[in-house]
Design goal:
The protein has about 475 residues and is mainly α. It folds into two domains: about 55 residues, Rubrerythrin, domain 2; about 325 residues, Citrate Synthase, domain 1. It contains 19 helices and seven strands. The longest helix has 26 residues. It binds acetyl coenzyme *A.
């Protein structure tokens, strides 16, 4: 008979009483929250916990970011995001997340100098951009070129050395905006623009995206500051999907840039960083205020997979503080640029309707950071397919901070979850002639059937693009 175990804890009632007891300790974090430490559960009992989506599982201990989901609070190393967004800049934020403290003036100067020194990417890496079709999504380009950085920085690096880990951090902060801007230029068929040492991170990103070699480009300080705040708001967010992906990749001691590329891939999905693109598409589809009830009804329907994009969050059961900051900034930016965007009015009305609807109230679904960010990006002139790329630039600071923290822990183990197996149990191999439905025909040595119409269509499209490009289109 399989052994049964009683969970003896200070909170849980015993579930089995046949005498076997496992004492699982409770841990408390810095906020006093309790965690049942199940690390010795499986080795002792061969019983696993089952938690798809990790709703009840802390995957690590971290000192970087804290979210109080019930109160709608977000702290970077203890500092409220509202204060950092109002009084700090990206250099403060990156130094704080990566090195753990708000920098002194001297530390700030040194940090900026180091980041500046890492802004350029190897000229050979620029060749990678030439391989993409003009209609490639910039996130597809970013995943590839960030991963390619590992080919340039993989030479005998000893990441057990804190200085080497910090160097990886400086390279990441320095190069991500450059790669993001080059992804934009590639997708638009424009020449890449090299970074400038006299500009800060946000100014440089703006400059590298929008400047052309043929004409002067004036940076708008309000627009640059807005982009800087957007980057800061996205810089870190506890163990979200992409950060957890970075940590899982890093747990095998993979190259840090390969890990960051894994984070970019995870961020891309519409349930995560891709939501900002999806919010704008949704608002455009709704079009007018009178169509809001129809959209809300669809979001509530159990038979319709549609969700209100930019609403809901795994951790926040209150308005995401970043959404509030983003909404205020959206107003200021539109005023400054003298833009009247009907989508802002539509978004505010949609927020009002959803927040007074029983469905959203009961499930504690509030606007998240993505609800208003798309409207800010639009006002800045950033095209939709670049939204998640900008998010990735901001979040890369958090990814590398979390990677540095993890790589610096000597106790870190490879992340290797268990599964609940639902497939067939062991059975004998079936020879091909005895398999159900076998037609008795021998296989062709080479499959001579034509490619599918879809493949042929894609090949034709690629060829016509190449021909168009070779004629200077
Ligand atoms: N619209 C309608 N219903 C929703 C929404 C939404 N946006 N979000 C959650 N729900 C409902 C679910 O249908 C579910 O209802 P049920 O209890 O009747 O089955 C309930 O609320 C709980 O939803 P879950 O999917 O279990 O919540 P989870 O924590 O797994 O998902 C997520 C969080 C992915 C963010 C979800 O709210 C969502 O899909 N939102 C829209 C996409 C989005 O804005 N993503 C950006 C997230 S923030 C970021 O990554 C920067």
């Amino acid at each position: 008979m399989a052994p049964t175990w009683r969970l003896l804890t200070s909170r849980l009632p015993p579930t089995h009483t046949d005498g076997r007891v496992i004492d699982l300790p409770f841990l408390k974090d810095a906020t006093g929250a309790s965690f049942l430490d199940v690390r010795k559960l499986y080795p002792t009992t061969q019983i696993c916990t089952y938690d798809p989506g990790f709703n009840s599982t802390a995957s690590c201990a971290s000192a970087i970011t804290f979210i109080d989901g019930d109160k709608g609070r977000l702290l970077y190393r203890g500092y409220p995001i509202e204060d950092l967004a109002e009084h700090g800049d990206m250099a403060d934020c990156a130094h704080l997340l990566i090195r753990g403290v708000l920098p002194t003036r001297k530390q700030r100067r040194e940090f900026q100098r180091e980041v500046r020194a890492h802004r350029l990417v190897h000229e050979h890496l620029i060749r990678f951009f030439h391989g993409f079709n003009h209609d490639a999504h910039p996130m597809a380009i970013l995943v590839s070129v960030v991963g390619a950085l590992s080919a340039f920085y993989n030479d005998d690096h000893d990441y057990t050395d804190p200085a080497t880990r910090d160097l990886a951090g400086m390279r990441c902060v320095g190069k991500m905006p450059t790669l993001a801007a080059y992804a934009y230029k590639t997708a638009h068929g424009q020449p890449i623009v090299y970074p400038r040492d006299d500009l800060n991170l946000a100014q440089n990103l703006m400059y590298m995206i929008f400047a052309l070699p043929t004409r002067p480009y004036d940076l708008d300080p309000v627009a640059c500051r807005c982009l800087e705040v957007i980057l800061m708001l996205h810089a870190d967010h506890e163990q979200n999907a992409s950060t957890s992906t970075v940590r899982i990749a890093g747990s095998s001691q993979a190259n840090p840039f390969a890990c960051i590329a894994a984070g970019v891939a995870s961020l891309w999905g519409p349930a995560h960083g891709g939501a900002n693109e999806a919010v704008l598409s949704m608002l455009e589809e709704i079009g007018t205020v009178d169509r809001i009830p129809e959209c809300v009804a669809r979001a509530k329907s159990k038979t319709d997979p549609f969700r209100l994009m930019g609403f809901g969050h795994r951790v926040y059961k209150q308005t995401d503080p970043r959404a509030r900051l983003m909404r205020n900034m959206c107003h200021k930016l539109l005023d400054h640029l003298k833009i009247e965007d009907p989508l802002l009015d539509l978004a505010m009305e949609l927020e009002k309707v959803a927040l007074s609807d029983e469905y959203f109230i009961k499930r504690k679904l509030y606007p998240n950071v993505d609800f208003y960010s798309g409207i800010c990006f639009r006002a800045l002139g950033i095209p939709r397919e670049m939204f998640t790329v900008i998010f990735a630039v901001g979040r890369s600071v958090g990814w590398i901070s979390q990677w540095i923290e993890m790589a610096g822990e000597n106790v870190s183990r490879i992340s290797r979850p268990r599964q609940m197996y639902e497939g067939a149990l062991e059975r004998p191999f079936v020879p091909i002639s005895e398999r159900e439905g076998d037609d008795g025909d021998e296989e062709d040595p080479i499959d001579s059937r034509p490619d599918s119409a879809d493949d042929l269509h894609h090949l034709g499209r690629m060829l016509s693009v190449r021909i168009a490009n070779s004629h200077g289109a």
